[in-house]
């Protein structure tokens, strides 16, 4: 039985903790302590802890759970006692969390809003995808800067010229054919060099993602039966949703992925807004690049996209199609079934390439 209830307000260099007993009385208060690891080592199966969701929260939660301690990771944006508090101090936050934890576990009067703690494999995938997206943004910035420098020198590159200039194989030779100022040439050379280095790092992180996603090979094999879904985008979807069964409805999953419009309702009237940006956007970002492939995945999806595009515009049709594809992938994972409109040759080619990539990566890393 849990005898002690700990509310820990953790910061980068110190933490504040309030401890309540079974009767709800504070039996210990720790202020601005720097040794969180030492504090955790004293915990056991008779303790329950609540901490705010922040950088490193899952690491400390894992450490507490390894001691046999029950740990909850609180969502501070949904915990109104902290979010709307007029007297917001470390001391008060720790006490509020400890009191809420005690009420939840002892009296059961109300729940506490917690964040979902994914498995270690999912968390590792998310870390790698975070770096992958960072490199993608850096590459976009560098490409835009290179194009802007050319425009400043009166050079308007067409599509073929852009490909040659930006490619590592032909870039240096292609640069020699353009007249730009000395300062612009130096800037272009530096930006191109940076771009090619970031491209190399992006390819490395992509290999790490495929390797880290190997435990999900069964799910990947199911998802890539959909035309337009690659092993990378399949792993992105799996990294975002983690446990597909935690979403009771398709709408809840789509809202989590940022594929559902915000709705404002007042006086019996509802006004739809933009899609929710405060969500996991990795899947939405990657799948946007494959919209036309999804439209060709089956006659039904082609008809759905064409009709909606003509009626509501291409932008809304893209999001609607991605939302439908995510719903299809959810159902495939829940039922363990392949996509009904699967094209056998397309699937075999993708799966064979994925297996060969894993073999090459393991050979490079000398992994059995």
From the structure above, extract its key features.
globular, 368 residues, alpha/beta, two-stranded antiparallel ribbon, Nucleotidyltransferase, domain 5
Briefly summarize what is shown.
The protein has 368 residues and is α/β, with parallel strands linked by helices. It contains 16 helices and seven strands.
Shape: globular
| Whole-number total of structural domains | 3
One letter per element, helices H and strands E, the order comes to EEEHEHEHHHHHHHHHEEHHHHH
Low-confidence stretches: none
Hey, roughly how much beta strand do the residues contain?
Answer: 5-15%
Distance between the termini: 45 Å
Spatial order of the strands in the main sheet? 3-2-1-4-5
User: Tally of extended strands?
Assistant: 7
Sheet having the most strands: 5 strands, mixed
Q: Rg from C-alpha positions?
A: 26 Å
For the residues shown, what is the average pLDDT? 88
Question: Structural class, from secondary structure content?
Answer: alpha/beta
Number of helices: 16
How would you characterize the overall build of this protein?
- The chain has 368 residues and is an alpha/beta fold.
- The longest helix has 33 residues, at 120-152.
- It contains 16 helices and seven strands.
- Helix 5 runs antiparallel to helix 8, helix 5 (120-152) packs across helix 10 (231-241) and helix 14 (299-312) packs antiparallel against helix 15.
- The protein is 57% helix and 12% strand.
- The chain has a five-stranded mixed sheet.
- Strand 1 (4-10) and strand 2 (15-20) form a beta hairpin.
- The model has no long low-confidence stretch (mean pLDDT 88).
- It folds into three domains: 4-107, YqgF/RNase H-like domain (Nucleotidyltransferase, domain 5, 2-Layer Sandwich); 120-212; 215-362, no CATH class.
